[in-house]
Design goal:
Order of helices and strands: HHEHEEEHEH
Mean pLDDT: 80
Structural class: alpha/beta
Low-confidence stretches: 1-13
Number of helices: 5
Helix content: 10-25%
Distance between the termini: 57 Å
Strand content: 15-25%
Radius of gyration: 26 Å
Length: 167
């Protein structure tokens, strides 16, 4: 029931916590970084991973100020087809401060490609200036072409290979 509620909600109408985001992403559990080589050797590790935005849990270094930098990046990997959150050896969610760092981690751990998602930060994209101008119809485009000097109808020579069914 809990999962179904989140599947029907729209992203911009709800605020996530890290826990509700994991429910929304259908994360089935966790795996530690030390377990990844074993899963890869057994052929259980998926081809790609996902970098996703979370609220910062840890305060490490100068970047860990949650007032200045409230978000960080986490990774989920697929083991046996199930999405699992990547945890540290201590059992806490592994976090990266930038996409560059998590991308380097992905490369260092054998992932050649990955998806990135950010469900926490809404970025409004302004519409182009001409978004509400009417779009010309096909007839209007043809009429403009004829007025500019193109003949209304042109025929292709018979031997031009214009028949799409012939090779």
């Amino acid at each position: 029931m809990y999962v179904r509620i989140f599947k029907k909600a729209t992203l911009w109408s709800m605020m996530f916590t890290n826990e509700s985001l994991e429910v929304y992403l259908e994360i089935a559990g966790s795996v530690t970084q030390a377990e990844l080589p074993i899963c890869r050797e057994q052929g259980r590790l998926g081809d790609y991973a996902v970098a996703y935005r979370i609220f910062r849990n840890k305060q490490g270094g100068g970047f860990g100020d949650p007032d200045k930098h409230p978000y960080s990046w986490a990774a989920l990997v697929y083991v046996d087809g199930l999405p699992l959150r990547l945890d540290s050896a201590r059992g806490d969610c592994r976090e990266w401060s930038t996409l560059d760092r998590i991308g380097q981690w992905m490369v260092d751990n054998g992932f050649r490609y990955w998806w990135t998602r950010n469900d926490l930060e809404y970025v409004e994209h302004p519409l182009p200036a001409n978004a509400f101008e009417p779009v010309p119809t096909v007839d209007a485009v043809i009429e403009a072409a004829v007025e500019s000097g193109l003949p209304a109808e042109t025929e292709l020579p018979a031997d031009s290979g214009s028949d799409p069914l012939t090779v």
